[in-house]
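Aim 2 progress update. The chain analyzed this quarter is reproduced below.
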Amino acid sequence: MDDRLTIQEAAAQLGVSTHTLRYYEHEGLIQPVERSESSGHRLYSSSDLGWLKFLKCLRSTGMPIREIKRYADLYSQGESTNSERRALLEMHRERLLASLDELNRSLEAIDYKIAYYRQLEEEHTSVLQPAEHE
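Predicted structure tokens:
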């Protein structure tokens, strides 16, 4: 049984378009994918999918394509580039942490406003309630 996936199957599993997979290959972000001898269609291995999942992670966290290309180039050169790859990922991680800090500050501001409006609504509701007489 062949465990390789067609481009449509790989795209569906990864949650990307077939166009994205072709673009990644064209741009050298992934090594050329094996092709079926009979049809010439791309066949993605589990190794290809693992690499693509990592690229998707980098992309979804805002790493620019040029940096992903740099990482892919370093990866293709082998273990001698491990420290450069680590440094590239550490820089990206620092940007992510700064972005998370900014998002958390924004979330705190939004939470403050939500609490403020809830308080106003409660005060407004209590003013409108008729006083009970005993």
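Residues 1-76 form a domain with the Multidrug-efflux Transporter Regulator; Chain: A; Domain 2 fold (CATH 1.10.1660.10). The two ends are 82 Å apart (CA to CA). These observations will guide the mutagenesis experiments scheduled for the next reporting period.
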